Amino acid sequence: MTSTDAPTPSQPPVDPAAAAPRPPRPVHRPTDRTHHGDTVSDPFEWLRNKEDPEVIEHLEAENAFADARTAHLSGLRSDLVSEFVGHTQETDQSVPVRRGDWWYLTRTTEGEDYPRHTRVAETPELPRGAGGVPAVEPGVLLPGEQVILDAQSLAEGQEFFSLGGMRPSPSQDLLAFSTDVRGDERFDVVVTDLRRGSADGERGAGGEVIDEAVRGAGYGLAFSTDEQWLFYARVDDAWRQHQIWRHRLGTDAQEDQLVLEETDERFSIGFGTSRDGSTLIIEAASTTTSEGWLLDLSDPTSAPRSAGGRRPGIEYSLEPAGDHLLVVHNDGVPGFALATAPLEDPGSWTTILEAADGERLESVDAFAGFAALELRSGGLAAVRVIPRRGTAGAGTGSNAEAGADVDAGSDADADAAAHAWAVEDAWDVSHGGELDTVFLQANHQFDEQLLRYQLTSLLTPSTIAQVDVRTREHEVLRRTPVPGYDPELYVEKRLWARAADGTSIPISLAARREVAPDGTNPGYLYGYGSYEASMDPSFVPTRLSLLDRGVVVAVAHVRGGGEMGRPWYEHGKLLEKRNTFTDFVDCAAHLVDAGWVAPDRLSAEGRSAGGLLMGAIANLAPERFRAIIAGVPFVDALTTILDPSLPLTVGEWEEWGDPLHDPEVYAYMKSYSPYENVREVEYPAIFASTSLNDTRVFFVEPAKWVARLRETVTSDQDERPIVFRCEMVAGHGGRSGRYAKWEQRADELAWLLDQIGATARI
Length: 762
Prior knowledge:
By secondary structure, the chain is α+β, with helices and mostly antiparallel strands. Helices cover 18% and strands 31% of the residues. It has 14 helices and 39 strands. It has an eight-stranded mixed beta sheet, sandwiched between helices.
């Protein structure tokens, strides 16, 4: 097709005799790129410029086509939204979390998109529920409960709203929070005094606004001990968080001071605070290497101290544990290890626990009497408790006895720190379910013997519980209510698919109890497979609408993710990236071969890097899938990773390889990048979505991909449509506000259910 015979983006062709509307077809304006002797002519690269009115017209035409192409599903969309709402206790609250002398919680109200954040002072008069936590009722404030941030009011008049972060000061008198009203994940920071009510014009702030000088910040907020300084981050033009700044409250942001800058474009920088609030913990990390620093928040203008330096391939994280540090690192241990270090010499590590085969240690939280280690074991997230010696539950074996003489010798501090932990008495928090996922929740009190955690699975709603580490007795604080849900109607299980190279790939599966593996069922398979991110089994209420229509719901835990430990990730990246795609196809084949899904009724979904997976499997095995949802899909991967001026590209070279300088990587990426490999065969129906202000994956990627698909595939596009939606005011996460998100999800799932013939409830 040439630029002279194609319609303009704002005027999609219309065939009066056609039963279905015709999609927009952008003109060809070829742009050439040459790398390693290979020249590629891209007809749709011009769609990148969102300042071009013709680009906006094209996106609006795509939205209009999507509206027309899915108009017949309006009733189903309404039904789905009603089901989503029906499975939600709309007026609800979180479990209160204690910080010092206050309990903090979040409340939602029926009919409102955004929550209110509140707090109540700890007093003996508070009504108590499970675990001694204040007993809270939906929609009923406790005596003295204070609204500290009203997100519903802050979002008033905004098409998009996101709360980037919220941090009380050490005294709990001040509150810092950040907001984004575009979706580009650049935040404006507000500091309020919670001792004084908000003045006119400061609606939603909760307290009196005392500072709003910082604009365009990244993620992270922290106060100095004296509450005179606020630490925050900034991003560069490539949306890499590269600087940590300190702002003196009440001054102009022009006077802010740079604390630390990360100049290596492969690294992003972030920070947090220790559990006791004494230390700012800064970390710069690439995909394969990290470096940590410590800054004394009682001396906020001091320079941060490096705590281990930077060595290629070595990753570590820091956790202050009172008189010493705990460090999770991979120095010589692929599955990571737990080490101790003296505060005076934070780079001197003494390993006390190494990951066993099949394990991956991820992070550690330290308390006065124990440490809680988050890890992966057997393909699931878990928590391991390690007692301190001399506390209830700690052993008195040979290691403890050896610790009695550690004051002698030049390494006394390091030895004392190492022997402080009874690793031989470690035990795991477990509930025994085949797909149970356990991970830590907010535990802000250092002198605490109750460890709060969250339990979930495909069929277990989010359950907040705590365990007394002295007695190992568990107590459920709250299971998220799901109206109209009876878990006895469903089953969940773990399956294992066999990859072509013999690797066993885990699949998490759920279905209605009456659904038999007889080869007739509709199916839905979700996947991601990048950045060592794990797609753990978790309860997603909107999936009930799939299950209740007889759809078999499954998650493929493919290589490139972190589900099975560090090797699982390393065998799904760089020049082994194809394993991610073939694993997913092998999981799809297993569902069909095992009879769980009919071969012509299987759908798939992935988002972001999972959207790359969707584009790749559509090219690799289009016959396997009837329909695909590709959310904010990274489908023009080669073009993006070739351009170091684009957001995050240089840092991504450790994930995908560097095609700009390495011809082997270039050829390998070109062989799988979805946009480069669309074929003239029958494809699944495809629903692609994006947002105009997405900083992580630019809207142009799915826009180009969809245009090429429509021109190339041989499918009957009336029967297997290619639909593309672009949110014009939103970011990587799509629409904001829970009702708008439900509507967006209903739009996608109604289309999917229609394509796999599962619109009726069973």
